[in-house]
């Protein structure tokens, strides 16, 4: 079908009307091929006309010459319970030079489920009037899948929200950069965002969206908070929602579960980039041994065609918790601080063991050897081995970032800093310069630590440091794996910082290839110092530095034994016992150099 213009009168409209349809099912899609070519070919739009609604809903638009080619349009219609028809309108403003055509119109998955004689299969629901047998995950999801509404009867309104009357019991996070916006109809920017909501499938219905235009900046975040739920075992709590991610510069939508109120929590799901102009359903199964809350976070891309939509969010098999999540207090190294210490007689220069109240020398704290029976003297320290798989930092912390967090006027979202990452979370452009797999598991699901060069500017520095290490032994060394791949890699350094000076122990700069590389740094005997990994940003974002599997090997200090040295050991001048194999090896194993004496 094509348009042939016979008259030159201004503002002509060519209108093609469809037959009238009675209803559609929730997964219904309409597709067609269109051709819009010529210097002054003009715009066209497909409109939905629903019985009982005065205002039509625009489903699709083309604004200009799309080249000498056929292009496919796919439109998600969803559940339309009332009779409707389509109108394809082509508007000419006097000058019409070109060809407009349409072909191969197709409807798919538009019929409701057929009636069934029985519905005894597990995890299924038998509709009351239509007798359709549907998946039980479709119950109470704000969509009439039965065709008679019976799957949406007797649902708890506190567990679902279609945003027709506000945010329900969801809340905007006050700690993010901006808020989600409730709207109906198209978003203000063309070629991005929804044209209609998911609930009604028309411009009359409301939904939430994230506005990516100015004054928003790259990686600004908007976070939506669910109510708090009771613990849920074996994924019995199900979260359903519909999202819309259409636009060339759409960035990221992610869902987290948290059990404390001042943390982002565990990543459950994410999606990057343009997913076309359609609403997409997502189902998440949630397990938690503690009361929990869901966070839905949208992140802005690097342009104004990056709007993201949310609609029809519901929970199944979940119960509301009557209370608030706890707040966890942390030290600068990210470890919990006990409220009170046990009764003790320790001096200010001694460390109090948390369980027993036993006193040990402060030099025995953070020395890679547990001297307290509960190992509390090593609890607020850097861990001896860290693979980042539990999504923690193992005691490593970022001093500069903590200072910024104390100053609420400073933006940290765009700061060059260390953060946890994994291959599964990368967006397409990152895959050229960030590890696709970690070193520990060699999979996309494994975690590592990386300095994200999409933030910051040339020459910016990101430091991540250990808490103060009291004392190490003569053979102490750090072994770690690093990944430095990209056209504008800066550098990675390992530093040793004491109260008097900071010295450089190891450095690497420039691209080292798309693989993990092993590095080993000798520390030896040192006291009251910190180890720092320092990443320096290159000239552009094409150069992330990553580390994984950081291990402190043979770092516990020498221990004077109550027993005499064995025949296989050498007694140092300071009474330490060391293996005889360590004699005369150019390493000060005794800490007093007696094992390297020429008189041995």
TrEMBL record:
UniProt xrefs under PROSITE patterns: LDLRA_1, LDLRA_2, MAM_2
UniProt-listed Pfam families: Ldl_recept_a, MAM
Transmembrane feature ranges: none
Keyword Kinase appears in the UniProt entry: no
Gene Ontology CC: membrane
Statement: the UniProt record of this protein carries the keyword Transport: no
Sequence ranges assigned to domain MAM in this UniProt record: 1-112, 159-320, 384-557
Record keywords: Disulfide bond, Repeat
Disulphide connectivity of cysteines: 140-155, 366-381, 565-577, 572-590
Protein name: MALR1 protein
Organism this protein belongs to: Vireo altiloquus
Lineage, highest ranks first: Eukaryota, Metazoa, Chordata, Craniata, Vertebrata
The encoding gene: Malrd1_0
């Amino acid at each position: 079908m094509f348009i042939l213009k016979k008259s030159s009168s201004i503002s002509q409209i060519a209108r093609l009307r469809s037959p009238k349809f009675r209803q559609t099912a929730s997964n219904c899609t309409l597709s067609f091929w269109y051709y819009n070519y010529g210097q002054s070919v003009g715009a066209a739009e497909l409109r939905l006309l629903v019985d009982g609604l005065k205002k039509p809903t625009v489903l699709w638009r083309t604004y200009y010459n799309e080249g000498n080619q056929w292009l496919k349009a796919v439109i998600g219609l969803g559940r339309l319970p009332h009779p409707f028809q389509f109108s394809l309108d082509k508007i000419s403003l006097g000058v019409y030079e070109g060809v407009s055509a349409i072909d191969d119109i197709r409807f798919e998955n538009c019929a409701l489920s057929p009636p069934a004689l029985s519905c005894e299969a597990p995890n299924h629901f038998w509709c009351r009037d239509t007798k359709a047998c549907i998946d039980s995950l479709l119950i109470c999801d704000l969509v009439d899948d039965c065709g008679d509404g019976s799957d949406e009867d007797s649902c708890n309104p506190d567990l679902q929200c279609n945003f027709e009357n506000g945010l329900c019991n969801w809340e905007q996070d006050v700690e993010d950069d901006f808020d989600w916006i409730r709207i109906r109809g198209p978003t203000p920017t063309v070629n991005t965002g929804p044209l209609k909501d998911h609930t009604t499938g028309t411009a009359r219905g409301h939904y939430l969206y994230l506005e990516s235009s100015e004054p928003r900046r790259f990686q600004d975040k908007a976070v939506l908070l669910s109510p708090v739920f009771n613990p849920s075992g074996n994924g019995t709590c199900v979260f359903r929602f519909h999202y819309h991610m259409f636009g060339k510069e759409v960035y990221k939508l992610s869902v987290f579960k948290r059990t404390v109120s001042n943390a982002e929590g565990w990543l459950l799901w994410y999606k990057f980039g343009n997913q076309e102009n359609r609403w997409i359903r997502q189902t998440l199964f949630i397990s938690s041994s503690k009361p929990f809350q869901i966070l839905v976070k949208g992140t802005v891309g690097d342009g104004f065609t990056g709007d993201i939509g949310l609609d029809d969010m519901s929970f199944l098999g979940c119960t509301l918790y009557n209370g608030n999540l706890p707040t966890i207090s942390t030290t600068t190294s990210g470890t919990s601080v006990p409220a009170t210490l046990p009764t003790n007689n320790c001096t200010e220069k001694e460390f109090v063991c948390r369980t027993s109240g036993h006193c040990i020398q402060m030099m025995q704290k953070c020395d890679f050897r547990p001297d307290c029976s509960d190992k509390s003297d090593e609890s607020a320290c850097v861990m001896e081995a860290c693979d980042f798989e539990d999504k923690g930092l193992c005691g490593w912390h970022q001093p500069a970032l903590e200072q910024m967090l104390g100053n609420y006027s400073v933006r940290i979202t765009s700061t060059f800093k260390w953060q946890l990452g994994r291959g599964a979370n990368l967006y397409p452009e990152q895959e050229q310069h960030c590890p696709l797999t970690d070193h520990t598991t060699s999979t996309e699901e494994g975690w590592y630590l990386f300095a994200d060069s999409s933030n910051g500017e040339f020459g910016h520095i990101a430091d991540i440091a250990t808490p103060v290490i009291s004392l190490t032994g003569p053979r102490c060394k750090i072994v770690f794996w690093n990944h430095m791949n990209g056209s504008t890699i800066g550098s990675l350094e390992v530093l040793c910082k004491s109260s008097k000076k900071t010295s450089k122990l190891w450095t690497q700069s420039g691209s080292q290839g798309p693989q993990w590389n092993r590095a080993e740094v000798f520390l030896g005997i040192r006291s009251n110092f910190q180890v720092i990994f320092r990443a320096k940003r290159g000239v552009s974002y094409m150069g992330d530095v990553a580390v994984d599997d950081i291990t402190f090997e043979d770092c516990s200090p020498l221990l004077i034994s109550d027993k005499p040295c064995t025949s296989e050991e050498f007694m140092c001048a300071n009474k330490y016992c060391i293996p005889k194999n360590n004699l005369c090896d150019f390493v000060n194993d005794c800490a007093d150099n007696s094992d390297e004496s020429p008189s041995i």
